[in-house]
Task: structure prediction
Amino acid sequence: MKYKSVFDIIGPVMVGPSSSHTAGAARIGRVARMLLGGQPTRAEITFYGSFAKTYKGHGSDVATVAGILDFDTHDLRLKDSLRIAKDLGIEVVLRTSEQVTEHPNTSRICLSDGEKTVEVVGVSIGGGKIEIIEINGFDFQLAFHAPTLMVLHEDRFGMIAGVAEVLTRHRINVGHMEVSRRVRGAEALMAIETDAEISPQVLEEIRQIPHIMNVALISPA
Amino acid sequence: MFRNVAELVERAESQGKKISQVMIEAEIEVSGRTREQIMAEMHRNLDVMEKAVRRGLTEDIQSHSGLTGGDAKKLQTYMNEKPFLSGATLLNAVSMSIAVNEVNAAMGTIVATPTAGACGIVPGTLFAMADKLQPTREEMVNYLFTAGAIGYCIANNAFISGAAGGCQAEVGSATAMAAAAIVEMAGGTPEQSSQAVGIALKNMLGLVCDPVAGLVEVPCVKRNAMGAAIATVAADMALAGIRSVIPTDEVIEAMYRIGCAMPNTLKETAQGGLAATRTGRQIEAKVFGVPLT
Result:
């Protein structure tokens, strides 16, 4: 079941004109920004399929940049995102690709802030719902409709148990979990959707676990 | 959670509940939120819809491209000045549906129901029925839960976006959702709501998504208008006891198969249908300076 809530159908409240090409595009941009953990200095956006063909008419470029600026789908500043990004000194590069993707509305967003870089591939599946299918080359299928803990760690035994132990101690229930790696024995990325909000203290405790490289919390987009 | 319309209706009928009640209870169960939180969010959605309807009927709305805007007002003026042919409730639903979709095209604030491209039909029919049936605010919110329950079934068994399944998936879903909700508000049974879904959706099968210049304007605004009309008439037919020979879930399945068979040129790529007509291409060149393809 891709759609889990009545508010996936009656919602979101949004600035027009397209839920998949405007609201969905904005949400993918916003997830990318949250994964970077702050304002980028450069954003490279590649559109595929229907996004590539019709982004001008739907304002998908404007919406994606709005998401990268951390604007919600109903934020009235969405329309002015390109100018706002320019004023903030964010370099925006937009490309379209002829490459055939599994889903017609696919975008690839690469953000950098001079130190860190994050690359996200997202699809807008309709009605404003999105799925993130790739993060920094790791394959996923994440909807980000619950608080999601992202843990980058060395690919070795005991890592899942270590994180689970912290969550157990704080009585936080896991709703959905995915683990992805590019090759065996290098780095792996864990995505954990939780039922309860995660406090900064929990994040810090996870960060202290040996062999964990980075921890980020993504709130519902 | 119910998986299709048959399960939804079975749950409602066996427990003597309305579809909206079944949807609210399922939402409480799945989301872990309280009834008050869920009702508050839907009340907020209703408020946004009401503002969009009012804006579209009273303000001079025009989209950035200049292709759409002002038709909702035009229809209301006509209704006030001329002896119109079809019914007042029907034309109200049509004009209010146009109003919301015009506001959307002008980058105004709307609620996606289930999408922005089809955002006129559910609120348009709702506020037209509200004039006719004088429901409480609570009953108006319930209308949205009933519409949402049907949309939930369609979204999980087929698709709701033009890019995935053509306009039949987008305006078609919204029309079916509205038809079911009108039936419930008018005092019909859950089974009659289901029949209205079947009757409405079968009249949307095969409808392609061919937006001129890729804009959510032409033909989207007028398809929202006709979606509201079909939803209203389908509801009347179901309330009269007329049944869909093909069961509703099978109509949804047919919509899914037709959408899968539809070529990509007719799925929101602005490459086929009305978008590829001579005038469509001329508009595209005018709006963007160059053709899109």
